[in-house]
């Protein structure tokens, strides 16, 4: 079972995330490697927002392959090259892919990722209750 909590003793989340998720009675735990914005054919768009959208689609496809859905994600880490991505557009893409689901989430700005063309990477953990 998962309990989503935002303790009253700390500030409210400053974005679309939850401060903590307690998982008990775990049946399945899925670790998803960093997903980049490359489509199935190997195309990698230049635009970072397009890469974010595709990376999140790849995350959803990984979940589907494990018979899980977006609401099973308990932790996401977004790695974005540089702080220049439009924050409002980033939030809208996340909202469109996550819906009402608000996993724990960390955004990390980095100098570079594995390849200079890659501007976004999304890593996640998912749990399926017993």
From TrEMBL:
GO terms for molecular function: deaminase activity. SUPFAM superfamilies: YjgF-like. One of its GO terms (cellular component) is cytosol. This is RidA family protein. It comes from the Bacteria. Belongs to the RutC family. CDD domains: YjgF_YER057c_UK114_family. Gene3D superfamilies: RutC-like. InterPro entries: RutC-like_sf (IPR035959), YjgF/YER057c/UK114 (IPR006175).
